[in-house]
Structures are given as C-alpha cells and as structure tokens.
Specification:
The complex is a heterodimer of chains A (about 270) and B (about 300).
Chain A lengths: L1 H16 L2 H28 L8 H19 L5 H11 L2 H6 L4 H31 L8 H27 L1 H4 L3 H14 L11 H9 L7 H7 L6 H31 L6
Helix pairs in contact in A: 1-6, 2-3, 2-6, 3-6, 3-7, 4-7, 6-7, 7-11, 7-12
Chain B lengths: L1 E14 L6 E14 L3 E5 L6 H8 L7 E6 L8 H5 L2 E5 L11 H12 L3 H14 L15 H13 L5 E5 L7 H18 L2 E5 L3 H7 L2 E6 L2 E7 H8 L2 E8 L12 E6 L2 E7 L5 H10 L2 E7 L3 H10 L1
Parallel strand pairs in B: 3-7, 3-8, 5-6, 6-7
Antiparallel strand pairs in B: 1-2, 1-4, 8-9, 10-12, 10-13, 11-12
The chains are: A mainly alpha (about 270), B alpha/beta (about 300).
Chain lengths: ~270, ~300
C-alpha cells in the first residue's frame, strides 16, 4: 500500500504545482495579510504586553506561523476534500469507489501531497518574508523543531478528517456549501487564526483549547515558541493524536453509512 | 464458465420525505447469466435501470433483493477484491488525473492494482499502440479531446488485465471515426484476450458491431434477452429508405418494401432489418426518376418501445 500512497501523494504534489500564477498570487496575499495582522497585534501588545503569556516577538511569530499554516493545513477548509464533495455531487465518486483502494486513504495521500507543495511554497515563503520584516523567533533546538514537525502532521490529519466529514455531508445534502460555511467560521475562529487562543479569557480559553481546531495553529505555534516543552509538548501532541483518532473513526463510520445507504448520483 | 450470475435482482430507492415518501423500483427482479468471453449489450431507454444494474454488478450499490455473483464474488461485500478483476469505463466520467499527463495516471494505476512492472509495461505498450495514444502520453488530460480522453480511459481500465470490462455509454459524444476505432479495438480485445464485455449504450451500431447478445431492460424489468437479430424480429423493427423523386408520384411499389408515407416528392419505404437495401434501391432506381436516396437505421429506442408496448 505504501508505494501506492507515495505515488498518489507525488501526483497530487505535481498537480498543485502546475498552477504557478495561483501559487504566486496566494503567496503575495499571505504576505500582505501577515504584515497587516502584525501591525494590529503590535498595537495590541503595546497596550497589553505579555497578553496570553506572549511577548510582542512571540505575537508576530504567531502571525507568520498562522499565515504559513493557513494553506498547508487548509485551516479554512478546501483542498482535495473539495474535489470529493464535487465528485459526490456529480456522481464521479463512483470512480473512486471502483478502485481497489480505501477511499479515505486515497484522499489522505492526495492531501499529504498537496500539503507538501503548500508547505514548500505558501508555508516557507511567508515564513522567510516574515523573518526578514519582523522580529520573528525560531525554535530553540532540535526537540522543538521535531515536535513542531510532528504537530504540523497531526494538524494536517485532524484538519483532513474535519474537511472529509464536511465533504461527506454531500452524500446526503448533495451540496456541501452550507456545512462548508459553518466549518469555515468555526475554523477561522477556533483555530486561533483570528486571535491566538491563549488570549481568550478564563473558561472560554479552556474550552477552545480542547476543541480539535486548537491543533491547527495554536499547538504547533506553542511548540515552536517554546511555550510547550517536555511533558507539555507531549501532551500537545497527544491531544492531536486523540482528535485524529476520534475524527478518523468518525470518517470511517460516516463513509460506511454513506456507501451502504446512499445513491451514487447520475446514470 | 459463468462469470456473472444475476437472480431476481432488485433495487428500490426511497424518494421524497415525510408524508410524500414513496418507494421507487429501479430494478425489478432481473435475472440473467453471462458466460466468460461473451459480449453483451445491456440496453434500454434513459431511466430503465441500466446504470443501477451496472452499479450493483460492480459493487458500489447494495441490492435490495435477489442474488448476485460476479467472478465468483459478492460484489458489494467483496468490492475491493472484485475491483482487481474487473475494468469499468464510463463515457461521461474519467478516472484520469485532469491536470497531469496521461502517463502519470497510468503509473498510479500500476500501483493501485499492483500489476507487475513488466506486465504493466507490456500492456501499456500494446494498448497505446492499438489505440494510437503514443504521441499523447505526455499531454495533460485536460488538453485531450473527448475521443482521446476516452481512449485513455479505456487503456486505464485494461492495464490490470481484467476478466470483465463494463462499459457505460463508451461511445457517447464521439464522432463516427472515433466510434469505429473504439469498436474495432473492443472486438480485438475480446477476440485475442477473451475479455468478457458488458456494455450499455444508446447506439444501435455499437450493439451491431460488438454484441452477439442483447439484454433489453425497461422500467426495471428485462423485457428481452437473446440475439440481436431476434430482437429485431420480435420488435418488428424496420429500416427505412427515404426516396426523393424528381416529381411527385403515387406511392412507390417495389418488391420487398412497403411504402409507409408520401409527402410530395419524398416517400418513406420500410423493409426488414435483416434484408439488404441494395435490391430495393436498385428496383426503385430502375422504375422511378430518383433525385436522392438515404437509409435510416431503426432506432434502438423505437425497437424497445415497440417491444414494450406489446
């Protein structure tokens, strides 16, 4: 199975790499937004230094990490699961089901390939630009680097599972744009892309930190910034593993129900 | 050897919701068996239940009732095992990667089906040659014409040496030359490799060129199962000779044909499908001043309609 998934991931990487203009314009947008949010955060941290345990340098680093993760983890939704939703709507999902390959694995492999491409372009690009323009921090040692890398992989898996579940609603609703909009709002807010989850007040912070979206940006960023070390780091990764397992189990259940109960569209 | 066995296959769908909920029968107690090496046309009007049957045969739709066995497997329970032994081609869908060259899609397929690299290369070389795709292997699929893409999809369905090939409207939207080439290829495939073919189509010529046997389905029920010639006989279908005379004339009378309609200088003559048009054309041309002639083949839909209305 591994050679197949590698082969699928490579093709997905190549597929996304064919649209150079889209990649470059997206990269440019990331950088512009990164700068704007940085200025907003700097003004905020000027008023409240040490908000959420972050100093100003942590805050700008967080901004650029957010921009870098945005496409890599597909925080807002989309990516290969949009293809899935469209294929369910048109009935082309039949083709996916005819293959002697588990549907979820097929799409995970594609999403990993896509994420690889986006990490190298939309991830690395803003990080470099951010580092040149602002006082951005880097992980303090190999443990933090490694922890961050694992956290990003987990973020991708959790995000994939959420997006897969959203796309699966098409089996019943035929059009995933409603669930997409809800998922977009939830992710935009609870991933910490708008404001870091650490500055949420009191109990609301405990709640958002327990939701799956916390694994998208907040946990990897805390590892990067050295806020999570030792057991804390492991707990952060464990949190991602837990959500990934729960959500993937949900994906399997939903897919099984869908393929046994639901009509494949079109003649 | 029986490759496909279907007994009283049934599929119902629930449509609507709440109080408007009702049950629609898409396939109603259909039974047939297909032997290895057969080429079978599965035909019927839109909505007759063709695709629903194919979806059940390939395992992506669970039957509501009846028994079903393909290559000794239960399709919906052993979908993955079955997928390795069958090929499926949809005229209106593609399995190829849209943004990538054809070559890439084929390479992924080798991994999917775990075909040995040698076998894969052999098959690829042979099919690419037969379907004349050599120059297109490095072209992104989105730049291919419909006919080229279709040929690509057929190669994709065959690289893993399937025993059965299901084709759902394989010639839809293709021009005459592409259709001819495709039929030629499928005939060769069946003759040289013994691949069993089951195809749905609206094109009577597909059936004439390929299928020894036809199963007609209408409103979910198999209304005919047998040789094509018998279908025409049972359906009472006829070919039509359209004659444009130089001047208006009373209804033409030649042996072997009956004049069905007269409209000014144009007349419609029908004659049996198994008869040759040549003697009739010759007789008409000998006796009348003809400006133009054309022959209309019977429409499969008409044949079925007639079959069903009786």
């Amino acid at each position: 199975m591994i050679p197949l998934y590698v082969s699928v991931a490579t093709r997905a990487f190549r597929r996304y790499s064919t649209y150079t203009a889209a990649t470059l314009s997206g990269l440019f947008t990331n950088c512009v937004f990164g700068c704007i949010i940085c200025f907003v955060y700097l003004a905020l941290w000027d008023q409240r230094p040490n908000a959420g345990g972050y100093d100003a340098s942590d805050a700008v680093t967080y901004v650029w990490l957010g921009q870098a993760m945005l496409m890599t983890v597909m925080v807002w939704g989309g990516g290969v699961t949009n293809d899935l939703a469209e294929r369910i709507r048109s009935g082309d999902v039949a083709i996916d089901l005819y293959r002697p390959v588990p549907l979820i694995g097929w799409y995970v492999a594609q999403d990993v390939g896509r994420a690889g491409f986006h990490l190298l372009t939309r991830g690395l690009g803003p990080t470099i630009v951010g580092a040149l323009l602002f006082d951005v921090r880097f992980p303090s040692g190999p443990v933090a680097w490694l922890g961050f890398a694992v956290a990003v992989v987990l973020a991708l898996l959790v995000s994939f599972a959420v997006r897969f579940l959203v796309a699966s609603t098409s089996f019943w609703l035929l059009d995933a744009s409603g669930p997409n909009a809800v998922a977009f709002l939830m992710a935009a807010f609870f991933s910490g892309l708008t404001v870091p989850l650490v500055i949420f007040p009191g109990w609301s912070r405990d709640v958002v930190m327990a939701l799956p979206w916390a694994s998208y940006i907040q946990v990897p960023a805390d590892i990067w910034l050295g806020k999570r070390e030792g057991w804390d780091l492991l707990a952060g990764l464990g949190f991602g593993v837990l959500w990934a397992v729960v959500l993937f189990a949900a994906c399997h259940l939903v897919l099984r129900r869908a393929t046994r109960k639901v009509v494949v569209q079109g003649g | 050897m029986r490759l496909i066995e279907v007994q009283e296959l049934r599929r119902t769908f629930t449509v609507g919701r709440f109080r408007a909920k009702r049950e629609v029968v898409a396939v109603r107690d259909v039974s047939f068996a297909i032997e290895a090496g057969e080429m079978v046309g599965y035909i019927g009007p839109n909505g007759a239940g063709k695709s629903t049957t194919i979806k059940m045969l390939t395992g992506i739709l669970v039957p509501s009732g009846g028994r079903l066995e393909v290559a000794g497997l239960d399709p919906s329970r052993q979908r993955t095992d079955l997928a390795r032994r069958i090929g499926v081609v949809f005229g209106q869908r593609t399995t190829l990667w849209w943004d990538l060259p054809l070559r890439d899609s084929f390479a992924v397929l080798q991994r999917i089906y775990r075909t040995s690299p040698r076998r894969h290369e052999q098959n690829l070389a042979e099919y690419v040659e037969l379907l004349d795709l050599g120059d297109l292997l490095d072209t992104p699929v989105r730049q291919l014409s419909l006919g080229q893409r279709m040929r690509g999809d057929i190669v994709a369905a065959l690289l893993h040496d399937p025993e059965i090939l299901f084709l759902d409207e394989p010639t839809i939207g293709l021009d005459v030359i592409s259709k001819g080439r495709l039929r030629e290829f499928l005939r060769t495939l069946n003759a040289t490799r013994g691949t069993t073919l089951m195809l749905t189509t609206h094109d009577l010529q597909d059936i004439e060129a390929l299928c020894d046997r036809v199963i007609v389905i209408d409103h979910g029920t198999a209304v005919f199962d047998g040789a094509l010639a018998d279908l025409h006989r049972e359906g009472g279908s006829t070919r039509t000779l359209v004659v444009d005379l130089v001047d208006e004339a009373p209804p033409i009378s030649v042996p072997g044909a009956t004049t069905r309609k007269v409209d000014g200088p144009r007349q419609w003559l029908s004659f049996p499908t198994d008869a040759s048009a040549a003697p009739i054309v010759a007789a008409v041309a000998a006796a009348y001043d003809v400006a133009d002639l054309s022959i209309q083949e019977p429409d499969i839909e008409d044949v079925i309609r007639e079959l069903y209305s009786r």
